C-alpha cells in the first residue's frame, strides 16, 4: 500500500518526496540534487545558471580577484571620479582663481586673492580632499583624466567597486598628506595625480600577482616617475604618496588569506587612514 506523506516532490525527480527547498528559487530538491551553499542548499539549476532571488546570496556568484562582486560595468566608479573632476574643472573655468584659492591644497599661507590666512593648518582640512579633484589647466586635466580612464579600466574590474573606491580615495588622500607634510606650507598643490598614481601602484601589484608581462607596467610607471622628478612644476610628493599607498593597499587586498580576507583588507585601509591622520596632525603641530 502506497502511503502519501504529504511532502512535496523533487522538481527534478518527481518520484522522490522531500522536505528540502532550494534557498534561492525555493523549488523542492532531493538529496541527489542538493548542493551545499553558505546558507542551506541550492538546486543545480541555480548554481549553474546564477539566477538569484531575494532569499539568499549565491554561493557561486562570480567574484573579483579580491572578493568583491563582479559587475557588468567595469568602469562605474572611474566614471564617477571623472565626473567629479570635470564638474570642478568647469566650475573653475566659470568662476576663476578665487575658487581655486578656496579648494587647492596649501599648508599655511596668506592668500592675497582671498585676503586672509588659509590652509590645512588653519583648520581647512577639506583641502586635502578637494584638491584631489581640482584642476585649473586644460592639459593637466586631460592628462590626468586619460590616466584615470585607462588605468582605472584595468584596476576597477579586478578589485570591485567598493575596494576600488577605497583604493582611489585613500591613494589621493595619502598623496595630499605627503604634500602637506613635506612641501613648503605656502606651496599650492592640486590635481588627481595622487589618485592616478595610486592606480598605477595597484596595476603593478595586480600584474605581478597575475604573473603577467611586467615590462609594459615597469616602462609606463618608470616614465611617469621620470617626468615627476625632472619637471619642477610637478608635486612629486603627491605622486609618490599615491603610488606607495596604492601598491600597499592592493597587495593587502590581493594577498589577504581567504579565511581572513575582509579583516586584512579593512585593516589595511584603516592603517593607511591612521598614517595619513598622523602625518596631518604632526605637520599641523609643527606649523602652529
UniProtKB/TrEMBL annotation:
The Peptidase S54 rhomboid domain, residue ranges: 123-254
Domain of life: Bacteria
Transmembrane feature ranges: 138-155, 164-183, 189-207, 214-232, 238-256, 263-282
UniProtKB keywords: Hydrolase, Membrane, Transmembrane, Transmembrane helix
Keyword Transmembrane helix: yes
CC annotations in GO: membrane
Membrane-protein topology: Multi-pass membrane protein
Primary residence: membrane
GO molecular function per UniProt: serine-type endopeptidase activity
Subcellular location: Membrane
PANTHER family tied to this protein: PRESENILIN-ASSOCIATED RHOMBOID-LIKE PROTEIN, MITOCHONDRIAL (PTHR43731:SF14), RHOMBOID PROTEASE (PTHR43731)
Family to which the UniProt record says this protein belongs: Belongs to the peptidase S54 family.
Name the record gives this protein: Peptidase S54 rhomboid domain-containing protein
Native source organism of the sequence: Streptomyces laurentii
